[in-house]
Amino acid sequence: MSQVDRVHFLSTLSWIIFMFIIWYFLIFAFIYPAYYSTLRGRAEYEMFLYKLILKNELLIRSFKLNNISLYIKTFKLLKVFNIASFFKSFSTNYGSFKTKYNEKKNFLSKEENLNDMGFVFKVSDDIAYARGLLKAQMTEMVTFKLESGKALLGIVNYLDNEGVAGITVLGDATVITAQTVVVRSYVQPRISAGYGVLGRVISPIGEALDGQGNIETEVTVNIEKNAPSIIARKPVREPLETGVKFIDSMIPIGCGQRELIIGDKKTGKTAIAIDTIINQKGNDIVCIYVAIGQKKSSIARVAKTLREKGCMSYTVIVASGASDSAALQYLAPYSGCAIGEFFRDNNRKVVLIYDDLSKHAVAYRQMSLLLRRPPGREGYPGDVFYIHSRLLERAAKLRDSIDENKNIIEGGSLTALPIIETIQGDVSAYIPTNVISITDGQIFLEASLFNRGIRPAISPGISVSRVGSAAQNKVIKKLAGSLKLELAQYREMEEFARLGLSLDEASIILLEKGRRLVQLLNQPQSNPINMICQIVVMFGGLGGMFSDISLDWIAIFERKLLFLIRSSKIFTVLDVVGRHELPEEFYAFCINLMKVYLSNEESII
Ligand SMILES: Nc1ncnc2c1ncn2[C@@H]1O[C@H](COP(=O)(O)OP(=O)(O)OP(=O)(O)O)[C@@H](O)[C@H]1O
Ligand SMILES: [Mg+2]
Predict the structure, then answer these.
(1) Which atom of ligand 1 is nearest to the CA of 267?
(2) pLDDT tens track for 112-170
(3) Chain-wide mean pLDDT for the chain?
(4) How far, in Å, CA of 252 to CA of 258, rounded?
(5) How many CA atoms lie within 13 A of 327 on its CB side?
(6) Where are the domains of the chain?
(7) What residues contact 327, with CB distance under 8 A and at least 6 apart?
């Protein structure tokens, strides 16, 4: 190289170095302070650092810097100079680095963009806090990539402008550690739906809990869907028979209605719900039982009852136990509802039981307090009404549609039977009043009635159904009017009788009849009664047919009568035509026939 060339080369090199210095000076003196003075900029800067760490995660381990914050501080301090240490460490650990890098490359599979990843930096009480998920959306599903190779799901429930995402973990959060990688999924929580879930016990995220293998269904549905619009709905017109005489006669429920079952602990709330499921056998109605925060033994008992009664073929149990995380318990009713909506949108009738929404509210309170949302009345967050209203608004009767051949297809319906547990019969507490105001009526179960041996212990005073009577069977509707009157008169007369006053003959007859009617409305658990049988029994009770039978024998007499009705040919005819209006005389005729028959059977009475 000649002298001139050397000078030329050196001047060019010094010029490049000079430009490099100027460039860095400009960046660090002007551009960097201006850009990073904004919060968002700082967040992005943090993200940039985290991404670097993510890329060099294995390198950090070789540095033995387990504490990420310490590493970041060092990184910030060293800024560009740590490039030297990077190369140093790189050269010393090259062998292990190479293999680990390949592992890492495989781990960050192709479709998983680095921008969709974040890092857990804190885990506490089933909430994991992560950095790096700057573009994540609220209620988006994310996956934790565990060291064991397994994946755990979570839902983003908190975001702040410093790039921190609070994620509620749908499972056991103890396996998540600091530095666990979180990956975005770009979808809201989804669950498997379709005919494959019938007969199964599943978790709120669609995992099989009954040990019968994976759920085989092609369809997945969004757990959080909007309720149908007003235009898509139709008034409630078809009855939903629960098989419980008291309810079907006096608090009728219609398909698409929301009827609350409310009462103290151990008053038979679940029993009514299970009876309703059992009664749908052969009715072509899909039933979904959602257990929220229940004891696992109770859930197993429900599943066993339904299996024994042969009801699992049309039933799904969505179960979240008391030991499951609050997030799972919170998600359970929405999951059940989403499965129900699949059937409803396919023109099927669905009954959904939420057992119970008090525990759902408690789970939501726990989740919200841990996410540091401000507590309101009774410690519940401000939107506790909204979580229940948006859930129950999804119950609906859909309007009919017309297919390509111009045939009218009847719309599906989703009937919701939420359950609420009260404390000491206090219906004016926060959650009970909320849910009472959302639903179309309530079945109130009283502990005092339950203790007196009245089963189901339904309080006639405050139990109502606001829309169901439009859907009620015409014959029983007529009977229910006089039944309510008779029962009210009986209760009034009973008060008098308690005072020890001497009563005239008419009052004694009224009392005796009332006692028999109350006895008739008693019903054992898991023993729903067909509508036609109910009509015949009610007709007999109101007509004074049981007046010459002693109170203790009423239940046995009724059982025998029902057996006779069911086994006679006339029942098949009645069952088909009796759902429409039938002359009362017809039923009276049937009862008289039965009476004659029974009176010949001396062994019964
Ligand atoms: N109609 C009935 N006839 C006889 N026993 C009944 C009837 N209904 C409920 N029971 C009994 O009452 C008890 C409580 O019933 P159930 O579990 O349905 O009440 P619950 O209100 O759901 O209780 P929890 O508060 O634990 O959820 C059970 O032992 C059940 O067998
Ligand atoms: Mg219960």
Answers:
(1) 21
(2) 566 688 889 999 988 999 988 888 999 999 999 888 888 899 999 999 887 889 999 99
(3) 85
(4) 11
(5) 24
(6) 33-107, 114-190, 235-472, 475-600
(7) 126, 154, 155, 157, 168, 169, 170, 363, 367
pLDDT tens across 4-36, in order?
A: 888 888 899 999 999 989 888 887 777 766 666
> Residue 191 in contact with residue 338, Cβ under 8 Å?
yes
Residues taking part in catalysis: 466
Using a 6 Å cutoff on CB, does residue 523 contact ligand 1?
yes
Tell me the CA–centroid distance for residue 457 and ligand 1, in Å: 10
The residue nearest atom 8 of ligand 1, judged by CA position, is 268
* Residue nearest (by alpha carbon) to ligand 1 atom 12: 268
- For 92-112, write each residue's pLDDT tens digit: 666 665 666 665 555 554 445
Instruction: Ligand 1, residue 419: give the atom nearest the CA.
Output: 22
Closest C-alpha residue for ligand 1 atom 2: 525
Ligand 1 contact, 265 CB (< 6 A): yes
| Residue tagged 């396996």 (tokens) | 175
Return the CATH number of the domain spanning residue range 475-600: 1.20.150.20
Q: What is the DSSP string of 24-48?
A: HHHIIIIIHHHHHTSHHHHHHHHHH
Give the predicted TM-score (pTM) of the model. Answer: 0.82
* CATH, domain 235-472, list 3.40.50.800, 3.30.470.20, 3.40.50.300, 3.30.40.10: 3.40.50.300
- The preferred substitution site among 264, 269, 443, 526 for testing ligand 1, maximizing ligand atoms within 8 Å of CB, is 269
In this prediction, residue 62 carries a pLDDT of: 45
What confidence score (pLDDT) does residue 58 get? Answer: 46
461 in contact with ligand 1, CB cutoff 6 A:
no
Give distance in angstroms: CA of 265 to centre of ligand 2: 8
Residue 603 or 515, more confident: 515
Given the CA of residue 455, which atom of ligand 1 is nearest to it?
Answer: 1
Task: Identify the residue with better confidence: 430 or 79.
Answer: 430
> Topology of 114-190 in CATH?
Elongation Factor Tu (Ef-tu); domain 3 (2.40.30)
